[in-house]
C-alpha cells in the first residue's frame, strides 16, 4: 500500500469515524457489503423509570379492597373514581359497588354505551328524569331491571310503553307512572300482560285511567301488593270491585297497601268490596273521598290486618266512624284531620280500643283539653298532630306531658291558646325531637 493510500484512509477514519474490516476479510468478501459503525458517537439520554411507591399505597391495593372502599363513597364519587385509571375502573365496575343504587338519567337519545355500562355494573333500579327517546333501548339493555320510575315524565305515551314492554320482564317488581297524564287503560293492558310479577304500581295523577284499566290489572297482576290510584277521578266503586275479585275479575288478593286519595266517586260500597276481597290489606288512604261515611268504616273494621287508615278531609266521618274502627283494636296509625264532625267523643272510643296507636292526627278537629286528657292515655303514641285546634290550652298540654312519655313528634301549629308555661310540659318529654309551633303566638 502506497503512502498516499494510507494517508487517505487515515483522513477518512478521522473525519467520518469509520472503521473498515481487516484487509483479509475485504479480499474474501469483495463483492458483499460490510457494516460500518461509529463507536465514538454519543447516544440520547434515557431517563430512569420512577421508583415504585414503597409501603402501603392506594395504587398497590388489590381490586377487592378498592371495591370495598368505593362501596362507601357517594354515588357521584363512585362514577368519578371509575375515570381515574384502568385499575380503578375495573374495581369500580364490580357489581358489589353498585348494589342497591338507583340510576337517575335524562333519556334524550339512545345511549347504548351507557346502557351497557349500567348492565355491566349490575344496576337494577332506574329512574328516568325526562324522556324523549331511548326508553325501549334502556329496558332491553337491563334484563334484570327490578324498579323503573317514570314519575313526572309527561311525554310518556301508550305507544312508548307498548314498545318498551313488548316482551315479558319477569324481574320487574316496581313501576312508577305517577303524573304520566297521557297513560290510559291501553298501557295497563300491556303492563298486565308483560309484567306479571309486578308488586308495586304507582298511578297517582294518571287521570285517564278508568274502571276498565283496573279490570285489566285484576286479570294480570295477581302478585300486586301496593297500588296507588291517587286522583284517578274516573275510578268508581266498580273499579274497586274488580280489584276485589267481583264479577269476572280474578282480583288482587295479595294487595296490602291501597291509595285512593282524591278518588271522589268512591262511596261506602267500594269499602264493602274491599272488606271482603282484600283480606291482606294493611293500609288504605281515603283522604278527600268526600262520599265515604261512617257506614263504610264499619266494613273496613272487619279487615283482620288493617293497621293504617287515612281519612283526612272526609266530611262524612264522625265520632261514630272512629268508634267502628276502635272495635278492631289493631290500628297503629289514624288520620282524621279536617273531619269537622270528629271531636272529644271519638277519643273516648280510641282510648278503649286503640291503645296500640303510634300515630294520631287530629288537626282542625273539634278538640278540647278534655279530649287531650283522653289522648294522654295512649301511652304508646309517638306522633301527635293537633294543629289548628284552637280550643286547646295549657291544661291539655300538661296532661300530654304527664302521659305521653314515648312521644317523639308533636304539631301545635296554630294553637293560639297555649302559653310558654304550657310548652314547658312538652319540651321536657325525654324522647321529643320534633316540635312545630308555627303561629302559636298569634292572638
From TrEMBL:
It comes from the Eukaryota. PROSITE patterns: FBOX (PS50181). Transmembrane segments: none annotated. Keywords: Ubl conjugation pathway. The lineage of its organism: Eukaryota, Metazoa, Ecdysozoa, Arthropoda, Hexapoda. Residues 55-101 form the F-box domain. SUPFAM superfamilies: F-box domain (SSF81383), RNI-like (SSF52047). InterPro entries: F-box-like_dom_sf, F-box_dom, FBXL15_LRR, Leu-rich_rpt, Leu-rich_rpt_Cys-con_subtyp, LRR_dom_sf. This is F-box domain-containing protein. GO terms for cellular component: SCF ubiquitin ligase complex. It holds the Pfam family DUF7885. The keyword Glycosyltransferase does not apply. One of its GO terms (biological process) is SCF-dependent proteasomal ubiquitin-dependent protein catabolic process. The keyword Secreted does not apply.
